[in-house]
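Practice problem: predict the structure.
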Amino acid sequence: MPATKKPAEGRHKPVSRPQQNGFELAVDSHDDNVRQIWVRFGRKAGTDTYEWARTFVLADLAASPGKSKSFSVSEDQLPVPPNECFYQFLLEVDGAHDQETLVTAPTPLV
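Answer:
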């Protein structure tokens, strides 16, 4: 008599990880219809210059007029330590005739 074959199965186990520190960032659309959001992170490289090292495209994160959208980024996703880090939003919005890109001022994370 042939041995009974055991079917494939999934398994799981609990995993304990230390808490990750991070930051919550938000975009307020105000009067604009925000179609696409990018956020870039980097450091100050001079008086008015910045060195952008990492850009995130926030897929499926749009904001209709008067709404706000928030998202989190953990410290290990940042290209530089938080106390040296600046961020900047690039927002694709509906313009008078086509989409326009609004760029916010570089802002220190800490």
